[in-house]
Design brief:
CATH architecture: Alpha-Beta Barrel
Oligomer: single chain
CATH class: Alpha Beta
Structural class: alpha/beta
Strand content: 5-15%
Helix content: 40-55%
Radius of gyration: 19 Å
Bound molecules: zinc ion
CATH topology: TIM Barrel
Strand order of the largest sheet: 1-2-3-4-5-6-7-8
Number of strands: 8
Order of helices and strands: HEHEHHEHEHEHEHEHEHHH
Distance between the termini: 29 Å
Length: 305
């Protein structure tokens, strides 16, 4: 039976030793398989997360939890896997805690700080009673903010939320979700350094990790970022590989049943695994052991009815 790690020790070790562990959003069955496969093959810990939108798309958080657990069993996954709710509202966080996610992010950035803090405390209590990890967000990490990027988190808020007991802290340092705009000014390392100094033991989280230049990612990790959220990068990898399949007319190859969804989703799925392996090398995530393992797709199954 699959077991979800809460990741607390994994991310603390990452912060202490100046590397990061990727947190990857899932969107469907193929995505989940691609993430698990790349983690197993690189022998690195994996955090799979679902946004509230993905929760609705996939048929509910229970589907995501059961699907991930069942795939871990059928794929014989032996690296630690953390299952996290990404940017949860209060109700979703409570639901995922009760369902057995091992980690939840409560995103109360739209609330006044007092209320955000009070709700975060409630989530922490519910989660910690069950050994579940909690991430909070300070400083709004939105979308489409222009060249300045997202709002900067305050050092005072960082201290407040850490004192309340959060296990991981997402802080706005000029990062945003989605594709970075032309002329984006980059991450604010000064603020990251101030926050890292104020909360020296808590793993810091970089949202919107897709599209940040490698040297900035590496510098952020050296200053205390231990978890990097990646979603857009893999969506683009999936899109590009899928586009190539159609542009090459492979979907129209009736003799080889190129129209079969299992075939036309495969290049994109493999592109996600490849993109993830690349990110792992950027983040310096060490392998948990030296076991060589292939968790490749059963290609023969593509030709079965
Ligand atoms: Zn985010």
């Amino acid at each position: 039976m699959a077991y979800f790690d809460n990741g607390n020790e994994i991310f603390k070790q990452a912060r202490r030793n100046h590397y990061a562990v990727g947190a990857y959003n899932t969107n469907n069955l193929e995505w989940t398989k691609a993430l698990l496969q790349a983690a197993e093959e690189t022998r690195t810990p994996l955090l799979i997360q679902a946004s509230t939108g993905a929760g609705k798309y996939m048929g509910g958080y229970k589907v995501i939890k059961d699907l991930t657990a069942d795939l871990m069993d059928s794929m014989d996954i032996s690296v630690p896997v953390i299952l996290n709710l990404d940017h949860g509202d209060y109700d979703s966080a409570v639901e995922c805690i009760k369902l057995g996610f091992s980690s939840v992010m409560f995103d109360g950035h739209n609330l006044p700080t007092d209320e955000n803090l009070a709700k975060t405390r409630e989530i922490i209590k519910l989660a910690h009673e069950r050994g579940i990890s909690v991430e909070a967000e300070i400083g709004k990490i939105g979308e489409n903010q222009g060249a300045d990027g997202g709002e900067l988190a305050s050092v005072a808020d960082a201290k407040l939320f850490v004192a309340a007991g959060v296990d991981k802290l997402a802080c706005g340092i000029g990062n945003i979700h989605g594709v970075y705009p032309e002329g984006w000014k980059g991450l604010n390392f000064e603020r990251l350094q101030e926050i890292a100094t104020a909360v020296p033991d808590v793993p810091l989280v970089l949202h919107g990790g897709s599209g940040i230049p490698r040297e900035q990612v590496e510098k952020a990790i050296s200053l205390g970022i231990a978890k990097i959220n990646i979603n857009t990068e893999f969506q683009l990898a999936f899109q590009s590989a899928t586009r190539k399949y159609f542009e090459a007319g492979k979907d129209q190859d009736k003799a080889h049943k190129g129209y079969d969804p299992r075939k036309l989703l495969l290049p994109g799925t493999e592109a996600i695994s490849d993109a993830m392996k690349e990110m792992i090398s950027w983040m310096g995530t060490p392998s948990i052991d030296s076991k060589v393992k292939s968790a490749g797709f059963d290609r023969a199954s593509l030709n079965e009815e």
